[in-house]
Design goal:
This protein has 327 residues and is of the alpha/beta class. The protein has one domain: NADP-dependent oxidoreductase domain (TIM Barrel), CATH 3.20.20. The strands form 4 sheets. The chain has an 8-stranded parallel β-barrel, surrounded by 6 helices. Helix 6 packs parallel to helix 7. The chain is globular. It starts with a strand and ends with a helix. It comes from Candidatus Chloroploca asiatica. This is Aldo/keto reductase. InterPro entries: AKR2_Oxidoreductase, NAD(P)_OxRdtase_dom_sf, NADP_OxRdtase_dom.
């Protein structure tokens, strides 16, 4: 898998990366997550599973790995794996995120799985926690799910602290979610500290069902801001685990290209000219290997237009996502 630049950040990534949202905690809202984990939530077993998926990703050439403070033990698993394998820090790019605190207590069912707060004290606390687990592989830190409502893009103390971290050589990014992704991206592009654009990259949801952030991501890419695509499989809605008959059109396009749903959906995201890296959220080696076949899909560039009828309004897409069950 060939390396490419993550915008103008100076970091190198591969077209497919691995996100650890589903690997680091017992509960997640991907369809079939409980099946992926075989309902075995013993910490040692989950660490071993995470290491196996990480090993398979590394062997396949994946060199970008994405975690967050709120992904349970994801940073612990990722950092432990990196240190045990003794990889050269220059050979891998690791991104993590701050802004949510994990609150599920290692349970699948919880009143709240994570609590969001974008205040300075949260940043300062979580930065130390991330650095302890991930140094010397810690080279990208992102605001987790920045929104206009959270006010983080107008919080000067937080922005100034991020700028100080950037001056120390850590790339600064943000992830976005919700029906107003495009607005947040454009607002982030305008954030300057001492005449320097603060954000080196943006991570956004883009998939065959939710394409609304595409134009703003193109603008970010044109400005030299790296683009990371998350949820390209729509939390499992674009896999065989979704029995919705509306996906018949997707199956026809897959048949034409001899591809599975997941490989095609990832391939279409990877084919977007503004996408630097697309995340696989695989929680098993088998699903990672299936995702990796995205690189073999022919004519992925034209598939999105052939499947335009699948696109949902942002409001409808995010309302559906909010109803997905943690499992």
């Amino acid at each position: 898998m060939q390396l490419r630049n993550l915008g103008a950040s100076g970091l190198a990534v591969t077209p497919l990366g691995l996100g650890l949202a589903a690997l680091g905690r017992p509960g997640y809202l991907n369809l079939g997550h409980a099946e992926d984990l075989a309902a075995n939530y013993d910490v040692a077993v989950m660490r071993q599973r995470a290491y196996a998926v990480l090993d398979a990703a590394w062997a396949a050439g994946v060199r970008y790995f994405d975690a967050a403070r709120s992904y349970g033990r994801a940073e612990e698993f990722l950092g432990g794996w990196l240190h045990e394998r003794q990889f050269d820090p220059a050979a891998v790019t690791v991104g993590s995120k701050w802004g949510y605190t994990y609150t599920a207590g290692w349970q699948v069912v919880a009143e709240a799985h994570e609590v969001k707060a974008h205040e300075l004290d949260v940043f300062e606390r979580q930065l130390i926690e991330s650095q302890v687990l991930l140094t010397p592989y810690f080279n990208l830190y992102q605001i987790h799910s920045a929104t206009l409502e959270s006010g983080v893009l107008d919080n000067l103390p937080v922005l100034t602290a991020l700028a100080r971290l950037k001056a120390q050589g850590v790339a600064i990014g943000l992830s976005v979610s919700g029906p107003r992704q495009a607005e947040v991206i454009r607002r982030a592009l305008a954030v300057m500290i001492d005449g320097v654009r603060l954000f080196d990259c943006v991570q956004a949801t883009w998939n065959l069902l939710e394409t609304s952030a595409g134009p703003a991501l193109a603008e970010a890419h044109a400005a030299g801001v790296g683009v990371i695509v998350k949820e390209a499989l729509a939390n499992g809605r674009l896999t065989d685990r979704n029995a919705d008959p509306a996906l018949a059109a997707l199956d026809r396009v897959c048949a034409e290209r001899s591809a599975t749903r997941d490989a095609l959906a990832l391939a279409v995201a990877m084919a977007q000219p503004w996408a630097d890296v697309v995340l696989s959220g695989a929680a098993s080696v088998a699903h990672l290997q299936a995702n990796l076949r995205a690189g073999e899909v022919a004519d992925a560039e034209t598939a999105a237009s052939a499947l335009a009828a699948l696109v949902e309004s942002p409001a409808a897409y995010w309302a559906t996502r909010a109803r997905l069950a943690w499992n």
